[in-house]
């Protein structure tokens, strides 16, 4: 009887452990709209910062996004290869670039649409070579309104390049450009100010002269963008969404 009880307990424990979630790492690669900000830059906040708080304790978020980086410079500065080297089966890679790739006036970071596509494919295929799961994200929008107060986007062909790679290579896509454009359209020119790093002189010690920044988010704006990414993750129905906190 005791032997049977021991076997049943052992079986129960084996089954219990088999159903426990394997710990995974989610890497985030991209530009300043996603990156972790230094204290001297706050309240500027990358949306990857609040996004990291959305998951249960089976997920580790490693945010390697970096200010001013395009797909080209992220690769050339050897920021991508160390991630590939550490990827494990079942890990995820969130890939969001575009702000710096499309900046023709900044030759140190500009990437042609053709090279942008090639680099996105490199991220996808090399992540998959390690049995990790890539997720492509179109770039979040900048705050831009015309003279009549209508929102317009400035990323040109780059978001469509992301969509095309996602379709061609059957990669999960979170369309941040579309969802953030919808949000800024709803909020309007004045309402959208509360999302971005706009400060009056002496309003914050990090910006004694004030700042008008229509690209980078404040804490509230980053949270709103992170919530859009969370909703996008839920909609594409990948297993990672099951690891979101339940609140």
Characterization of the model:
The chain is an alpha/beta fold. It has a single domain (25-243), classed as Rossmann fold (3-Layer(aba) Sandwich), CATH 3.40.50. It is 39% helix and 15% strand. The chain has helices at residues 2-19, 48-51, 71-76, 81-86, 113-129, 158-168, 176-191, 219-236, and strands at 24-30, 59-63, 92-96, 133-137, 172-174, 196-199, 211-217. Helix 5 packs parallel to helix 6 (158-168). The protein starts with a helix and ends in an 11-residue tail after the last helix. The model is unreliable at 1-19 (pLDDT under 50).
Summary tags:
7 strands; alpha/beta; single chain; Rossmann fold; five-stranded parallel sheet; 8 helices; disordered N terminus; 15% strand; two-stranded antiparallel ribbon; globular; 247 residues
When the domains are counted, the total is: 1
**Count the strands?**
7
State the helix count.
Answer: 8
The H-level CATH homologous superfamily, spelled out, is SGNH hydrolase
- The proportion of residues in beta strands is 5-15%
Radius of gyration: 21 Å
Shape: globular
Low-confidence stretches: 1-19
The name of the CATH topology is Rossmann fold
Mean pLDDT: 92
Biggest sheet, in brief? Answer: 5 strands, parallel
Q: What's the assembly state of these chains?
A: single chain
Write a short abstract of this structure:
It contains eight helices and seven strands; from the N terminus they run αβαβααβαβαβαββα. The chain has 247 residues and is of the alpha/beta class. The chain has a single domain, classed as SGNH hydrolase (Rossmann fold).
């Amino acid at each position: 009887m005791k032997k049977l009880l021991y076997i049943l307990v052992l079986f129960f424990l084996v089954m219990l452990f088999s159903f426990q979630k394997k710990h995974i790492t989610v890497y985030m690669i991209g530009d300043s709209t996603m990156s972790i900000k230094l204290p001297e830059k706050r309240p500027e906040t990358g949306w990857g910062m609040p996004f990291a708080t959305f998951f249960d304790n089976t997920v580790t978020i490693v945010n390697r996004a970096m200010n001013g980086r395009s797909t080209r410079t992220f690769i050339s500065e050897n920021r991508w290869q160390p991630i590939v080297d550490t990827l494990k089966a079942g890990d995820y890679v969130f890939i969001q670039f575009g702000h710096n790739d499309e900046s023709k006036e900044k030759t140190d970071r500009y990437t042609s649409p053709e090279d942008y596509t090639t680099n996105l494919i490199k991220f996808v295929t090399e992540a998959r070579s390690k049995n990790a799961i890539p997720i492509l994200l179109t770039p979040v929008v900048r705050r831009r309104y015309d003279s009549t107060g209508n929102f317009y986007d400035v990323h040109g062909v780059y978001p469509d390049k992301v969509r095309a790679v996602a379709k061609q290579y059957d990669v999960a896509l979170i369309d941040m450009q579309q969802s953030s454009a919808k949000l800024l359209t709803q909020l309007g020119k004045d309402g959208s100010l509360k999302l971005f790093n706009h400060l009056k002189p002496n309003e914050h010690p990090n910006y004694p002269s004030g700042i008008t920044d229509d690209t980078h988010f404040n804490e509230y704006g980053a949270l709103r963008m992170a919530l859009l990414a969370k909703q996008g993750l839920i909609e594409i129905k990948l297993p990672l969404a099951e690891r979101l906190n339940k609140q």
